[in-house]
Each structure stands twice: as C-alpha cells, then as structure tokens.
C-alpha cells in the first residue's frame, strides 16, 4: 500500500491538479475569515470550506490515471487496493492543509473566553469531520459510480452542498457545534461528528473499492 500511496501522490503533485482546490480553499478562508473575529465562528467557516475541497481532491485522484496505466496498476496490485490508494491520497492532503489553516486561524482569532488548546482541538476535529465527509462525497460522485464528467461534477457540487446543510450530516453537526460555541464562548469538541464522519468515509471507501473491483 505504501508504494501505491507514493505512486498516487507523485501523480497528483506532478500534474499540479492539486493547485486549483488549494487556491479555492485559500480564497474561501481569506474572504470568509477576518483577523480578530471570534475564533470559534472563524474555525467553523474554516472547517466547512474544506468539505468541497476534499470532495474535489478525491475526484481528482480517482480519475487522474489514464485507463492503460490504471489497468497496469490494477493487474499488479489489485483493482480494489489501487482504488483505495487513490481515495486515501485524495483525502490526506486536504486534511493536512486544514490543520495548518486551523492553527493559523486559532492564532489570529479572538479567543476571549476560550483557551488556545480548546479552540484548536475543537477546530481540528470539525475540520477532520468535514474533510472525511467531503471525501465520501468525492468517492460517490466519481468512478465507478459516475464516469461521465458532467454528471460527476454536478453530483459533487450538489453532494457537497447537501452534506453541509442536511440534518444528520457529520459535517453539519461539527460546524453547528462551532457556531453555537461562538455564541456562548464555549468550545465543545465534536467527537461524535468526527466519529460519524470516519465511519461514513470508511463505509463509502469499502463500497467504492468493491464496486471498482466488480464493475471495471
């Protein structure tokens, strides 16, 4: 699996396709977060913004290989394992970027009534919940479920929006916890939301890998 992760990461960074999602995230955070505003509210926006970026990143990694190269890798390592490596690669770097963003926002925000550790830990859990939910959206809106680019992008955009506003979504629960905490200056780490997002991402990855092995 390590070799597959290195292969997928090399493809991603050499292609520079990661640049567009990264710039989108920087733009979201740069426009939506202001220095000196209540830190929990700013962290809520920072976490929410990573969801569509993670979905986009996963879709990029799942679709970046030419069909011939994908078949060669599948023959060598197994189609399911190769697909899982693409999913993990697509989910990993948005999480890393979100961690940096959360730490920067925590340092620049107004932490009155909230300790830096409490704010950062709450923001990191919310960002992880949103990133994992976004990864699930990206996996469901790309191959092998949706191969046509138009339908895939449409499903990705709509799925990201629904994941942020639908009751019961781990991402919505995590962001709501931060927004509510900003009003009461109480940091309530969204452990349940993070656990739910992890289970959702794992189930989606298993379903996607099994479907890839059967359908492709």
Task: Characterise the protein shown here.
- The protein has 216 residues and is mainly alpha-helical.
- It has one domain (2-215).
- Helix 6 (116-140) packs antiparallel against helix 7 (149-165).
- The chain is 81% helix and 0% strand.
- The chain has helices spanning 2-15, 19-32, 39-63, 67-77, 79-108, 116-140, 149-165, 170-184, 191-215.
- The model has no long low-confidence stretch (mean pLDDT 88).
- The protein starts with a helix and ends with a helix.
- It contains nine helices and no strands.
Radius of gyration: 17 Å
Q: Kindly state the number of beta strands.
A: 0
- Structural class of the secondary structure composition? mainly alpha
Average pLDDT confidence is 88
Instruction: Give the total of domains.
Output: 1
Structure summary:
The chain is mainly α and 216 residues long. The chain has helices spanning 2-15, 19-32, 39-63, 67-77, 79-108, 116-140, 149-165, 170-184, 191-215.
Keywords:
single chain, 216 residues, mainly alpha, 9 helices, elongated
Show the helix and strand layout.
Layout: H1 2-15, H2 19-32, H3 39-63, H4 67-77, H5 79-108, H6 116-140, H7 149-165, H8 170-184, H9 191-215
Helix pairs in contact: 1-5, 2-3, 3-5, 3-6, 3-7, 3-8, 4-5, 5-6, 5-9, 6-7, 6-8, 6-9, 8-9
